[in-house]
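Structure tokens please, single chain.
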Amino acid sequence: MLGLIVPGLVLLVCWSALAWGIMAGWHWIWQLPLVLLMVIPFWMIGELLYAASRPRVGYESGQLLVFLEPTKATRVPIDIVEVFFLGQGPSELPKIAGCEPETQNIVIRLAESAADWKHRDVKPALGHWCEGYITIRGSWCEPITPEVMKQLNRRLIEVQRERKAESQKA
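Here you go.
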């Protein structure tokens, strides 16, 4: 939400200048640049709110959806996901008093045999994906608690059992 401050201030200044220009009777040619300039902070605020509203992890038809890229989710086969566990690491946020703040992370361990899924390039502010471990930074998602981790692992076990039962029926 801190990212909303600068575009919000720019929007407020432009809107105020536009309102003042209308009351002062400025010609529309002077008001048009202010209106056009207001599009940029509106777009930035929309992008930030959209990014903040997206989940970092989801599930859809046999695939774990990992949202660590700006435009789309990476679809990981649920069969290679072994466990979710709680981690801690750098937040990738600005330093406070010379020290980088830390955050709790969700770490997803993938199967050792899944060589194609060892590494992906992701947005560093959102997470890290290396050596078969996906790290989701807690600074950009809901608060990560032990209960959240239990819920994720419980759901993983349920889905994997359902998939195993379906494959045995076929």
